[in-house]
């Protein structure tokens, strides 16, 4: 008598098939069990090594449905050919394999807000190191006149500044205008908070919710989406879902690229 294997699992309970993705160097994935997010730097028999934005390495087994790519489960597999170097950085620029960080330029980019600075580092960090551009944290626009005065920008030391939600006619706008010159450029993105610069699709939400005026925006967003009200932890989760420039809105991309071009332009 022919033997049949019985599978009594209802169809709706069977795991859905997920795509297999070659674990090529530079591919950014997340290991859901630990929340560790990083780029592939090495893939060996049965394991893959990831490096996060702080340079920390973790080794994980190559298991079915073991990773998230842009928020979706995938099965990482060993590349079929030899090691493939990434051809693009997270910002979309052409990668320079083996390039060392350039000696820092005199020029600088200041970014208002810690979350803003972390996002710039994650997406443009490779480009900035190759160009020798240092990013500094700006606590608030009120500090800008003193910073510009002390920095004394000139032809060989240009200063670029990225600020939040720069609206014409406001106090912040007037301060930005007062320090702008041929060697100092201040630009602003249109978002109330840098969180909004991350595309909703990267986070698995339909849209960023509208928060009533007068309410803390981040807290209001967390409440509307049912997220924990620990905004620091939520931001780290958001940042972990950003794999490249493709996860960001073009209005932010344009401003950051403008600043990089400005501070690296020949004297």
UniProtKB/TrEMBL annotation:
Q: Which domain of life is it from?
A: Bacteria
Domain (DUF3097) spans 20-79, 108-264
What this protein is called in its record is: DUF3097 domain-containing protein
Organism of origin is Streptomyces rameus
Q: Which InterPro entries does UniProt cross-reference here?
A: DUF3097_C, DUF3097_N
């Amino acid at each position: 008598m022919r033997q049949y294997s019985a599978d009594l699992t209802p169809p709706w309970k069977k795991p859905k098939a997920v795509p297999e993705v070659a674990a090529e160097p530079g591919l950014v994935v997340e290991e859901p069990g630990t929340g560790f997010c990083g780029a592939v730097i090495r893939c060996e028999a049965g394991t893959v090594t990831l490096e996060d934005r702080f340079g920390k390495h973790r080794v994980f087994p190559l298991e079915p449905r073991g990773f998230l790519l842009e928020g979706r489960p995938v099965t990482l597999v060993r590349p079929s050919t030899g090691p493939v170097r990434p051809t693009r950085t997270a910002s979309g620029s052409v990668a320079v394999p083996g390039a060392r960080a350039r000696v820092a330029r005199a020029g600088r980019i200041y970014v208002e807000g810690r979350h803003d600075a972390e996002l710039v580092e994650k997406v443009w960090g490779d480009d900035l190191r190759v160009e020798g551009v240092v990013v500094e944290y700006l606590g608030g626009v009120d500090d800008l006149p003193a910073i510009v005065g002390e920095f004394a920008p000139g032809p060989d030391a240009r200063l670029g500044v990225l600020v939040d939600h720069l609206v014409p006619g406001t106090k912040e706008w007037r301060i930005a205008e007062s320090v702008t010159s041929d060697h100092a450029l201040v630009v602003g993105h249109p978002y109330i908070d840098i969180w909004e610069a991350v595309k909703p699709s990267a986070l698995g939400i339909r849209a960023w919710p509208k928060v009533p005026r007068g309410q803390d925006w981040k807290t209001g967003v967390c409440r509307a989406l049912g997220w924990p009200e620990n905004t620091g932890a939520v931001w780290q989760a958001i940042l972990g879902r950003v794999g490249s420039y493709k996860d960001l809105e073009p209005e932010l991309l344009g401003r950051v690229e403008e600043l990089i071009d400005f501070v690296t332009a020949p004297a």
